Amino acid sequence: MHLVLLQGVTQGRSESTLYAISIPSCKELWQLELHKALPGWPSLQLVVEGKACFTCFKEPSLPVAEGLFIFDLHTQQWSFRDELLTFVNAQGTSLLVRKQGDEEHYHVLDLKSLTVSLLDNPAKWIKTAQLSKQASKEVQYPYHIGEENPLYKDLVEFVQEKASHLLVGMVEYLEWADDRMLVSYYIEAAEGLMQYVLITDKEGKVVLHDCIDEKLKGMALDVFMVMDKQCIYIKNKTQLCVYNLA
After folding, report:
1. Per-residue pLDDT tens digits for 221-232
2. What is the C-alpha to C-alpha distance for residues 68 and 82, in angstroms, rounded to an integer?
């Protein structure tokens, strides 16, 4: 069993709920009303070592996050709270943070011990963190293919052949187990962009073609992911969809 965390947000309000869902059963294990425990507009940043790390925005229109709050997924308790810390980035099991009012120094929060210490060599730490990327052996994300990529033309033709659509802008794709081809793409419509997920089998037969959003003004990254033979994506901003690839 794998655990998927999903943050549901009430449109136009700071109310949000964290849902823990098991994959592949799609069973809800528990839920947590974030707005009752955190100030402002909560935002899930990452999950490391069984700990979900949140920061908060005072206003949704201001791109400045404040505070660091850590929820232990094993005990289902808040294990760390500090409204004066600002999250910068992550490396391994450590978080780079700054303290409010201290613009000269960086600090490191160890997620195992939950202790904060002054960073002696910030330049080296930051450079290493920028070159690294959070990854998981259990989760696969699609490749992001722009028009400058040689593969882009092939994907345009692929979508035209399988779905009779002329895609626009970036396209995402992933080949799974030499058995499935997964593509996420956009087309132009009268009221904005429409977004689709398309999956074919190894013979090229379409096994899933789903319109997952419409009236869009922009494009998003990592529209779907694959975990435990399941393709997972959000439809219409309100539905968690899980498609069995096996």
Report:
1. 899 999 989 999
2. 5
- Using pLDDT thresholds of 50, 70 and 90, give the confidence band for residue 124: low
Delimit the domains of the chain by residue range: 2-131, 139-244
Sorted by sequence, the CB contacts under 8 Å of residue 7 that are 6+ apart come out as 16, 17, 18, 19, 34, 42, 43, 44
- Which of 25, 28, 27, 26 lies closest to 17 in space, CA to CA? 28
- Structure tokens that stand for 61 in this block: 């229109």
**Assessment of whether the complete model's pTM goes beyond 0.85:** no
CB 117 within 8 A of CB 110: yes
Q: Thinking of the domain 2-131, which architecture would CATH place it in?
A: Beta Barrel (2.40)
**Cβ contacts of residue 174 below 8 Å, gap of 6+?**
140, 141, 142, 143, 181, 182, 224, 226
Measured distance CA(152)–CA(173) in Å, rounded: 10
Cα 71–72–74 angle (5° rounding)? Answer: 145
Spatial neighbors of 83 by CB under 8 A, at least 6 apart, are: 39, 66, 67
On whether the CB atoms of residues 86 and 97 are closer than 8 A, the answer is: yes
Name the residue with tokens 């002329």.
Answer: 166
Distance between CA 26 and CA 19 in Å, rounded? 11
Residue pair 202/180 in contact (Cβ under 8 Å)? The answer is: yes
Question: 64 CB contacts (<8 Å, ≥6 apart)?
Answer: 57, 58
